[in-house]
Predict the structure of L-aspartate oxidase.
Amino acid sequence: MMETNFLIIGSGAAGLTLAVKLAEKFPKKKITVVTKAHQSESNTKYAQGGVAAVFDLKEDSFQKHIEDTLIAGDGLCDKKVVEMVIKEGPLRLRELMSWGANFDTNADGELTLGKEGGHSKFRVIHHKDTTGNEIERALLARTDQLQNITILPHHFAIDLITEHHFPELKTEEISCYGTYVLDQISGSIFAIKADCTTLASGGMGQVYGHTTNPAVATGDGIAMAYRAKARIENMEFIQFHPTAFYDGKNQSSFLISEAVRGFGAFLRNKKGERFVLDYDARGELASRDIVSRAIDSEMKKSGEECVFLDCTHLEIQELKIHFPNIYETCLKNNIDLEEDWIPVVPASHYLCGGVVVDIDGKTSLKNLFACGECSHTGLHGANRLASNSLLEALVYADRIFKYISKNLPLRTTISIAEWNESGVEMLKSSEILQQKTVELQQLMRRFAGVVRNNKDLKEASIRLEGLYAETEDLYQKHKLNTSLCQLRNMVNVAHLIIQQSLVRKENRGGYFNEDYNQ
Ligand code: FAD
Ligand code: SIN
């Protein structure tokens, strides 16, 4: 068993920001970050467009950013949270810059600002089209300088340790005492006991298979919190990004940033028509749910497998300067932006709901915090405004840091049992896990995708019960590995999405159910 003061699960923008702040303030305390792949692997690393924040007080204002966020959230945002995040955003970004993150500036050294769907002003600060990679680089470099941070890469958090693991403790309140962790290289499982634990484990795009998210985004933190009986909400609000590169396969795919549409690119169907204008006067820069549904409807009408993003009318040299990564990646796929249209489809991109937290990042369990994409703060409501998620991750890491600084958690005296593996068998082949994962992803795309209806959701619920029973059986009887734990977590997350979709009896924000189509 390992002991630490502050345990953080995940090494994206949320987890690393919290680690840096705690390490700076408490040089004598131990901060441990467990992360299930290489330490840089995360949704953060792939963020393109940038971070939305008000830096241009002549053209923009906090009020306008607040209004845009509330409009996107369609009545379900928590106004107090929206105001707090948007007003604190620039401070957090300045702090990130002080740790070495570089954002694009003009010849006068002023930040250059991009625009994305739903924003009334140019306010997205960025590092070319690889903003997330730059943030991740800067944060990891800062953690390297701090002696009291231990990052454990290739360590998979399996389950939170709570009263559930100590039946002799008869208490009403559930507390978190750390987590059981699988060392993905040796295969051994051990406990990490912590004074307090923060989930910073990111999103769940892999539940749909076809996603802009990398392989690590399997909703583990949400599933762990759910099993530990924490409150989880707004899981029906999955944001589908309209423009994921289409290569004919249903797996993680490269994102074509909304900033490219902000730069003037047009969406066209195969006939060359700018069809989005028939759905919304804002055209390509309508909110993501509207553009994704317009594409979905266009594809269903025409029977085509994708639509296209046309950049051929744009100034190519400028495009290359702003979007070098997108330009090069398209070229590698034989798409020359000067001449060819990019084939695109909507793909699962972001989870607006998650583990419910209060304004200090506290979950409903004692000594358990959450921040970043796995959390539900109230900022996004029914739909997230583009580039508001990195902002939320930075601000909430800081909120948790401030709360912990004022309310230092006590050392826990409880003694934690070793992980019990007696009686388990080695899984004969990993093929079954692969098959079940694909089955789950197909089910979610088919029955709980961009456009849903109650009949499909009920069908999904029934089919998922079967998958749940089969997965639990595999989990109980076999030695654990990453794929098995991830499958179990994705089944839990799919259950939450389906059940919370069935409870919502209206269309709102990013949630669209044909049965409520007025
Ligand atoms: P992540 O960055 O996803 O980090 C989660 C970490 O948890 C990872 O290190 C992961 O390995 C680890 N982890 C997960 N489960 C476990 C486990 N069981 N055990 C141990 N470790 C675990 N947002 C914006 O604001 N602007 C953008 O321009 C933007 N562009 C995007 C482009 C793409 C392609 C994608 C996919 C997302 C984009 N987003 C953008 C969304 C944004 O990147 C994420 O919401 C944000 O980075 C989430 O940060 P996080 O720290 O919460 O999670
Ligand atoms: C993008 O660059 O289009 C993604 C931005 C986001 O998800 O906020």
About this structure: The CA atoms of residues 10 and 35 lie 5 Å apart. The first helix runs from residue 13 to 25.
